[in-house]
Amino acid sequence: MRNDVIKQILLAGFILLLVFIIGSQLYVFFPGMLGAVTLYIILRQYYFKLTVIRKWNKTGTALLFVFGAMILIALPVAGLIQILLPKLTSVLDNQKNLAATLNSLTLKLQNISPRFQINEQQIAGAIQKLTGMLPGLLNATANMLTNMVLAFFILYFMLVDGRKMEQVIQRYMPLQDANIDSVWLATRTMVISNAIGIPIVAASQGLAAMLGYYIFGISDYLLWGVLTGIVSVVPLVGCMIIWGPLCIYLYATGHSGAALGLALYSFIVTGSIDNVLRFTILKRVGDVHPIITALGIIVGIPLFGFMGFIFGPLLISYLLLMITIYRTEFSGNNT
């Protein structure tokens, strides 16, 4: 009996060691795997409806879904890369113009407020840090494209073998059937809420900001609108990361009326879109508390990269759900 326990411990330890070794090597591809899980959760209902109820061919239907996902995801991402990358690389490569612009802006801000003190060495250091980010930006872009291809590849096999995969997961989960259903419902709600809700909010705020930048005379309003949409997912500050400095720039360059107008427009129109969507469209998609989303994003980004916007809130939701499940599973045994 004692030997059996030792064998079990050794085998479990060996399994954990293998999982750690493999996971440490595949960690860079983790966002792609999570992306495949996200797409599977969104598409499974429609896939099973076609293959189980309407008896469509599994392989052909899976390929159709993967191709459709590629069009809906890859084309917008490729468009964003085509818009952002050339402009950012052009700005970062032309250090002299960037330094001259920042020096001019600094002098104007110092004339407005003498307490504002930034010297040329600090500006040069900031520019050097920005230009040093360019190789990392290119590597991140290549890594994102690789993970995207991996996500579509894994998605195909998840769709084709979806029933078997779900049965295996359900068999090995140490929970009652009712609690397994609760875990699945929480997972589906959180994933769909963030996977659909975040792009809707980002696109809406980006378009609204783009219109505001155009109205108040911001050059490259298309670029700044796209950047505003991207940073809108950052908790608490969000769009202000972009429109705040732009308002300061307008004010420092003598366009005080445009600066005030853009600040009011951004605060009232762009900033309120999140609340409007959250209590209308997003409430139907999945009613997730904003605190869970904000805390989840803070936790998820360092762990999962971009996919942390989806799986970070899911971790918080799992924590709350597991506490509830623990009470229902074991509280009866303790009384």
Question: Quick summary of this structure?
Answer:
The protein has helices at residues 2-26, 30-53, 58-93, 95-112, 120-160, 162-172, 177-215, 221-231, 240-252, 256-278, 281-285, 290-304, 308-330. It has 335 residues and is mainly alpha-helical. The protein is elongated.
Fold and architecture overview:
This protein has two domains: 144 residues, no CATH class; 163 residues. The model has no long low-confidence stretch (mean pLDDT 79). Helix 2 runs parallel beside helix 5, helix 3 runs antiparallel to helix 5 and helix 3 packs across helix 8. The radius of gyration is 25 Å and the shape is elongated. Helix content is 85%, strand content 0%. The protein has 335 residues and is an all-alpha fold.
Task: Throw out a few tags for this protein.
335 residues; mainly alpha; 2 domains; 13 helices
Structural class of the helices, strands and pairings?
A: mainly alpha
Total domain count: 2
**From N to C, what is the helix and strand string?**
HHHHHHHHHHHHH
What's the overall average pLDDT, rounded?
79
Rg over CA atoms: 25 Å
How would you characterize the largest beta sheet? none
How far do the termini sit from each other? Answer: 32 Å
Helix content: over 70%
Low-confidence stretches: none
Record field, number of beta strands: 0
Envelope shape = elongated
